[in-house]
Amino acid sequence: MHKAVMSFQKENGLAPTGRIDAPTWQALNGSDDPVLMAYTITDKDASGPFVRIPADLMERAKLPRLPYESLQEELAERFHASPRLLRELNPRKAFAAGTEIWVPAVTVDKGPRKAAAITVLKRERLLQVEDREGHVLAQFPVSLGGRRDPLTTGKWKITNEVKDPVFYYNPALIWDAKSHYQKTQIAPGPNSPLGVMWLGLSKPHDGIHGTPEPSKVGRQETHGCLHLTNWDVQKLAAIVSPGTPVIVQD
């Protein structure tokens, strides 16, 4: 949130304090609208299927799909929250069809216009989407590769977009692969290592994609790809397209 506020302040000519001070609140057109809303869990929500996802990758490869593990996980991702937050907002409530719960009031709108470029700020672990004038349209926290799998600075581009991607796992490309891991395919789903969306890059083997562990975005090193939450990568995919340049900066 601190990084998001600072970027908003810079874009609007305000002092980049990272705090929502009076000028920032005014620029945001801040209101007293509720930040939570009531939501009634539907039969469709509760129907699943929900599956325990094995930790071992070879065991995961045996599953026909990698869906959510629980109703709480499904609802948390839909409302851009953690399962723990949902439980704290709804103490002593059963997560089942017909139950009314409190959830973050995530607004659904058309989103920003189409992007002209993506800039990845490695040091800040941020991905920014810009228009033709260089104005920031959107910003997302992102996980990047570490010292063994660094994302090379320079200019790349998006080459393709795949919804619900299959993960073609090759241990030869993964430096810390376990000795019993073999080439395999991991089925799609929100708990796939690639999440629900893949945006391929012109840099071989690398892409921008979702993750089954949104709480680790920006906090965990990757094997070279850029990880966003599933909901953020879907937002990103809606405003970029194959050919969109991706500029990686230190």
Your description of this structure?
- This protein is α+β, with helices and mostly antiparallel strands and 250 residues long.
- The protein has 3 domains: 1-32, no CATH class; 36-104, no CATH class; 117-249, L,D-transpeptidase catalytic domain-like (Beta Barrel).
- Helix content is 20%, strand content 23%.
- The chain is built from 7 helices and 12 strands.
- It has helices at residues 2-11, 22-27, 43-46, 57-60, 71-78, 83-89, 230-239, and strands spanning 36-40, 100-104, 117-121, 126-130, 136-141, 154-163, 167-169, 184-186, 197-201, 207-209, 226-227, 245-249.
- The strands form 3 sheets. Strands 5-4-3-12-6-9-10-11 form an 8-stranded mixed β-sheet, sandwiched between helices.
- The longest helix is centred in the first third of the chain and has 10 residues, at 2-11.
* CATH hierarchy: architecture of the largest domain: Beta Barrel
Q: How many structural domains are formed by the residues? A: 3
CATH topology of the largest domain: L,D-transpeptidase catalytic domain-like
C-alpha termini separation: 21 Å
Give the overall average pLDDT: 94
Largest sheet composition = 8 strands, mixed
Dominant shape: globular
What pattern of helices and strands is seen along the backbone? HHEHHHHEEEEEEEEEEHE
Helix content: 10-25%
Query: Count the helices. How many?
Result: 7
Spatial sequence of strands, sheet with the most strands: 5-4-3-12-6-9-10-11
The number of E-state strands comes to: 12
Give the CATH level 1 class of the largest domain.
Mainly Beta
The Rg value, from CA coordinates, equals 19 Å
Query: What is the beta-strand fraction?
Result: 15-25%
Low-confidence stretches are none
Which class best fits the helix and strand makeup? Answer: alpha+beta
